[in-house]
Write a structure and sequence with these properties.
This protein has 682 residues and is mainly alpha-helical. The protein has helices at 14-19, 31-35, 83-87, 130-137, 147-158, 163-176, 184-202, 210-225, 237-244, 248-264, 270-273, 282-303, 308-325, 330-345, 359-383, 404-407, 411-419, 436-456, 463-479, 494-518, 523-546, 551-559, 561-577, 591-608, 616-642, 647-654, 664-670. InterPro entries: Sec_Metabolite_Reg, XnlR_reg_dom, Zn2-C6_fun-type_DNA-bd_sf, Zn2Cys6_DnaBD.
Length: 682
Amino acid sequence: MSAPRRNGLPSSCEPCRKSKLRCDHTLPVCQRCVAHRRQQQCTYHPCPLTKGRPRRALVRSNQDRRPSNPGDDDVSPNNEAFDWVEKTPSVPARRFEPKPAGNRDKSFSPLGFLGPTSHATVFGDDALDGGSQLSLLGDINTEAVDSTMVEIGAQILSLLDHLPFYTELLEKRFDLFEGWIFGPQLVRETLLNLRMLYHGVVQDSSAHNRHSCLLEGSRMVFRNTVATIETDPAMTLSEYVSQTTPRWETVGLIFALVGTATYQIASGAAVLTRDGLPGKDIHGLRRTAVAVSDMCLQFCNKIGVISDPLCWTALQHTVFMIDMHGSNDYRTWQRQGEVVSLVFALGLHQQTANERTPFFLSEIRSRTMVAAYSMDKELATFLGRPPRICQQYCDLRFPLDISWEDLVADASIRETAIQQLNPDGWNMQGDPDKGARPRLTLLASILREMILELSLSRDVENLWNRVEKVRLESNQIRLRLPPFLRWSPSNTHPLAASVRLEFLYQDFLLYQTVARKTGEISDPLIDTSQNILAGLLDLVSRQSRTGPVSHLTIFDFSYIGLPAAAVLSKELLRRSQSSANQSTSGTSFPRSKIIQNLSVFAAQIETFFPCREGDYDTCMKGLAYIRRVLDSVLSACACAVSGQPADETRAVEGGSSGNGDMNFMTLFDNFDWEQEIRPLFT
């Protein structure tokens, strides 16, 4: 953003101005620079036609011209060519000079949590407190902020002019799903404080000095970002949010939530189709949101600060990246690694009692750790890679099964809610919408780590025994759940149905591991796949009769249903090719019912999973394969009645399609059906 020109028109960005091209003045990056992949260079200079004073170092007398030594400060007469080095987050802006201990902030050390094997333990127990860590190991880089960062920060603050729209969008999202990491109370309080912050920055500004006010506001946010977040046990949520709001990580969190909400709300909703959207349309809004949240994370990385809100932003930004780029994109994997680094640096994996931590913050930290642990297991399963967080090194604490209202309420109300929990920690009112989801997520993630240990291991000895051991543990966990979370014909709550699908899916992954290691599809795998597909179709049917289908059910439909449908399609094709359609398998294989369920599944998944970014292409590719199998099988049935072989039947028997482009058995053997991620935390 720059000052307007004399004719009143806005100034162009630097690449467009220097190239003499028309600029559309879009913030934070113009669309021409996006099209030419010049996002990093797209900046709006506050005074484009001004130049800096010539540096006196460029004019030297003959007597100053002497051979340079390695220790000289000025190696080159022109240092401008190397300015990019100072822009990288890993390069310190200055040499550290220790401050007196009495003037130090008590915020997190740049190294964060230090465990029992840390080299700092040689200094004794006193070396492990925050102040000693700072005095021994470094300081937050408060001089890393340059004019470019301040300018970008001003552009980001200008986007807060659309706060009423962001608030409306997030309220629509809360109508669908409150979320169990960042509840409505936390987000609403943050939006309220951001509105006051923005009004305080621009309230006395005019058209000609508005940018100057935004620049000063950007500097103020940078100062607050490196400041200490003071806490005490009696602190309320409002008092805590008033400290965390004027920080870049909190601004990034709101934009990450906004971007994620555009995937959770129907794309045809009125709030997303109106005129004047930030970024012009929903796609521009998503690009703007991901750019802002990413830039806010870079600000904190450049400064070297770590905090709870920074971990929240990194977590939500990774969820946003999953929606935008897909689970198999390297950027998603990289961002998830940063989340893991933050939870370890903050010590969330080894939570200890802290007298200065308010109750709601301690509970949010537990939920944040559960979300990071769950995301790690989901991506590791989806990509077939080792998980980054291991349970044996973590003190995983189950979140409380209480509502967000009770979580942030006064101590008396909170204690009353806690007393209404049973010895296992579940609420005794039988309400599945209170705080059951994070507890269920942790249980499922612990089981998933056991499955990953089996799936990624090279050892195949006693495989069935180990699989049955994990499956027995899964059944015991399921049976210990309270009745309101166990699905039955009389309990059809969406969460209970989702829990049933989750445990079926765990069994599916176990049997799929056996099939992959032995090369044989077992009867339990086929039975489990049938139960998954039938359960999903029943769940969708029930929800369709009472209202719109939940977006969580849609994700289950895509990521659980597709692998199960693939197994059934492959088995259906194999049996169709066998002589007289006979099989030695002892499992029940109701052929007509499976064909019917696969047909309904194929029709509904295309409806519920509209064209979008992320893993859409992979899911549509798998769906196309399933439909080709159905066409071949049904054509073979029709020709069997008429006595004439179909083209598709001859193609399958000959090993290729009529166009010579498909071998079904080879295709199913080689295609990666492990679309196993379930974004429980979105």
